[in-house]
Specification:
Structural class: mainly alpha
Number of domains: 1
Radius of gyration: 22 Å
Strand order of the largest sheet: 1-2
Protein name: Ethanolaminephosphotransferase
Order of helices and strands: HHHHHHEEHHHHHHHHH
Mean pLDDT: 87
GO molecular function: phosphotransferase activity, for other substituted phosphate groups
Shape: globular
Transmembrane segments: 53-71, 83-101, 135-152, 223-246, 258-276, 288-310, 317-335, 347-364
InterPro entries: CDP-OH_P_trans, CDP-OH_PTrfase_TM_dom, CDP_ALCOHOL_P_TRANSF_CS, CHOPT
Number of helices: 15
Pfam families: CDP-OH_P_transf
Number of strands: 2
Helix content: 55-70%
Largest sheet: 2 strands, antiparallel
Length: 390
């Protein structure tokens, strides 16, 4: 946790990042289809606009749209105003587009730098956590096992793609027919369906929506059950493929064991989500905050992984940040519904949320600060960095 003191990347790591070459895999069919549109639209960006600023604007559009949805229902179980679903769909499209053209803007303005990959992939990790929470919201899953499963299916592919890049040096845009761009369009469709057909569309019976369906495929099933099957198929199928690819890429028994431990460590994030007790009314009604607290851990570990793969530093399998949740879970285990225990629970709950937000922000701030200083560039501005004279 050296980043809390303002230093995470070693001097050798800074040098490695400066010499790092991004090796992308092949575009997916969907990427190839959209590429002419991306090439066309990047020409509308002003040349003074830094690539990282392009990415950040897209992330702000997506994050702002979803936060509005979360404000209407923090429990993530109730329908919200239909216009919020449209805003999220637009936010996903805006982020997808700006995220796809930030590299083109960098080449167009001659401002490519290793910081670009770090910032781009860091924003990607945040965007997928927002998308995962959006899935839980429009399906009304709340803090539940199904909610955690939906989050796993949405978030884990991106983590494994970075883990494979850490071990192979190549970042794959897709695996087979599965890719992030197609997944984003699928989420746009699900949100637009809520906007056009009503916020409760996923709580309706299949037999009412599709009366021609055979009884064994419709009786007792809601539309959200079918959406869950799709998400689980894509997420679990993708992760199994990634695990096999990761273990095959690891050379030697020791390397394979290390890769396996990295996978187990990541699964601990979803274990944290499961430990939040949804039987406690306060926790259940504040599911959004519980999820964000744990999501900060996902973003933190993923950003650490991205920094380590670029700097060729060792990515640890033990992260002491997990211990931040220990006081809350201890207090939760002692909860007995008395006013005193209720107050203690709320304090620990919010404190965990705030601390996780702060240390995640601190890591991002430290990493960007180190790189902008070492590379003598700005994060959101094109041109060399000029140090102030003392």
């Amino acid at each position: 946790m050296s980043y809390l003191l303002g230093n995470f990347i070693s001097e050798k790591g800074e040098e490695n990042i400066k010499n790092h070459k991004y090796v992308p895999g092949e575009y997916s069919p969907m990427d190839n289809l959209l590429n002419p549109f991306w090439i066309w639209i990047v020409e509308f960006l002003p040349k003074w606009m830094a690539p990282n600023l392009v990415t950040f604007v897209g992330l702000a559009a997506l994050g702002g749209a979803y936060l509005l949805m979360l404000v209407f229902d923090l429990s993530m179980t109730q329908p919200v105003p239909e216009f919020t679903y449209l805003l999220v769909a637009i936010g996903i499209f805006v982020f997808q587009t700006l995220d796809a053209i930030d590299g083109k803007q960098a080449r167009r303005t001659g401002s490519s730098s290793p910081l670009g990959q770090l910032f781009d992939h860091g924003c990607d990790s945040i965007s997928w956590t927002i998308c995962s929470m959006n899935v839980i919201s429009f399906l009304g899953l709340g803090l539940s096992f199904n909610g955690i499963l939906a989050m796993y299916s949405t978030m884990v592919p991106f983590y494994f793609l970075n883990l494979i890049e850490y071990n192979t040096g190549v970042f794959y845009y897709s695996v087979g027919i599965m890719d992030g761009t197609s997944a984003q369009f699928m989420l746009m469709f699900f949100n637009i369906l809520s906007f056009t057909c009503g916020a409760d569309i996923y709580q309706r019976k299949i037999s009412d929506l599709l009366p021609f369906m055979p009884n064994f495929l419709s009786d007792g099933y809601l539309l959200k059950h079918y959406v869950m099957v799709i998400l689980i198929y894509v997420g679990v199928g993708f992760s199994i493929t990634m695990i096999i690819k990761l273990l095959n890429s690891a050379k030697g028994v020791q390397t394979k064991m290390f890769a396996f431990l990295q996978i187990i460590q990541h699964l601990g994030i979803y274990g944290l989500m499961y430990l939040y007790d949804a039987d406690i009314l306060f926790v259940r009604d504040h599911a959004g905050i519980a999820y964000i607290s744990v999501i900060c851990m996902f973003v933190l570990l993923t950003c650490k992984l991205i920094v380590c793969l670029m700097s060729k530093m060792e990515y640890n399998v033990i992260h002491f940040e997990f211990l931040i949740f220990a006081p809350y879970f201890y207090i939760q285990s002692q909860y007995d519904a008395t006013p005193e225990s209720e107050s203690a629970l709320k304090i620990a709950f919010y404190a965990t949320f705030v601390v996780m937000l702060l240390i995640t922000f601190r890591f991002i701030q430290t990493s960007i600060g180190q790189l902008t200083k070492y590379l003598e560039i700005h994060c959101f501005k094109i041109g060399p960095r000029k140090e102030k004279k003392q």
